[in-house]
Specification:
10 helices; 38% helix; alpha/beta; two-stranded parallel sheet
């Protein structure tokens, strides 16, 4: 995504949440490279994951007192950049992190002089049916109503979330797809491209007070296309296992029913709902007027592609740090 309106970078004092995750670290690297004084609030034991050039402070983002005492320390900041996200997407986790912790940070940073907030959200909140989506939207609404300048960035799929089958295919197994493998599509975006995009938001007037969907370069790709390219990289004939969406529906129904009596199964039912959502919904801009996803309306940025990432994985040049939201 390009635009003519861009200011010359001027150093700011930036407070970062979620700066030790894969996207967060890429964002911190981009902030530091642009000359910003960057302070990352991290969990105990995560200090070593903070990129070089940034300062790590251990603080509990769920505790307003710890945020003020251990995080901000009575100091002034210009910008809050939040890459914070719940680990599991389960309701309690989502509302604690995607909403309450974000609100805590918003209030604390506002008192510390912050006038601009850059928020990493998710494109899937366009069609909210899951707890973490509602929690993210609730915070987006509070941020917009805060009176501060805001930039809400909603990226499409991440490389790490679409790379879980590389090792499976390398071992000679088929690539798993839902339905015919073409019921969804996305424009995956790489960590460094997204980190650069987020860092650039500090100096782009045309990204102020906007909600911005963003994808990676190239055309939208389906799961089947992902599998075909992976087999080609490995020099093998494509082999697919087609999983009926009805099977996911049955799993969700069974787990939800049993979860009325067994809380552990209720949690598994929510995870199954999350899996079903990503199996059946495209990570592209949604047009409510037509009820369809629109790849052409989904902006692109950067130069790194998912297939470039697959090639690096196949060559052993990189590994994936895959979290709870990884597909497969």
């Amino acid at each position: 995504m390009s635009g003519a309106s861009a200011n010359r970078t001027r150093p700011r004092r930036v407070l970062v949440l979620g700066g030790t995750g894969t996207i967060g670290r890429a964002t911190v690297r981009a902030l530091v490279s642009r000359g910003h004084e960057t302070v990352c609030l991290v969990r105990p034991g995560a200090e070593a994951r903070t990129p070089e050039g940034a300062t790590a402070r251990v603080a509990d983002v769920t505790d307003p007192a710890s945020l003020a005492r251990d995080g901000l320390r009575g100091e002034r900041f210009d910008v809050l950049v939040s890459c914070l996200a719940s680990r599991t997407g389960l309701p309690a986790d989502a509302w604690a992190i995607d909403h309450r912790a974000q609100v805590n940070a918003l209030r604390a940073s506002e008192a510390a002089g912050v006038r601009h907030v850059v928020l990493l959200s998710a494109i899937c909140v366009q069609k909210p049916v899951l707890a973490f989506q509602h929690a993210k939207l609730a915070f987006e609404a509070e941020l917009i109503a805060s009176g501060l300048d805001y930039t809400i960035v909603r990226p499409t799929a991440f490389f790490k979330s679409l790379s879980g089958q590389v090792e499976r295919v390398r071992r000679g197994k088929p690539f798993l797809v839902f339905g015919d493998g073409a019921i969804t599509a996305c424009k995956p975006i790489g960590d460094d491209d997204l980190g650069a995009y987020l860092a650039e938001c500090l100096d782009r007037d045309d990204r102020r007070n906007r909600v911005l969907p963003i994808g990676g370069p190239g055309e939208a790709i389906t799961p089947r296309a992902q599998g075909e390219h992976l087999f080609a990289l490995l020099g093998r004939e494509p082999r697919f296992t087609h999983v009926p969406v009805a099977l996911l529906d049955a799993i969700v129904t069974i787990l939800a029913t049993l979860g009325r009596w067994l809380p552990a199964l209720a949690a598994k039912a929510e995870l199954a709902r999350i899996g079903r959502y990503y199996a059946t919904e495209s990570m592209l801009v949604f047009d409510p007027a037509t009820g369809r996803y629109d790849a052409h309306a989904t902006p692109s940025t950067g130069s790194d592609t998912l297939f470039d990432h697959y090639a690096r994985l196949v060559r052993g040049e990189v590994t994936n740090e895959r979290g709870e939201h990884a597909v497969f």
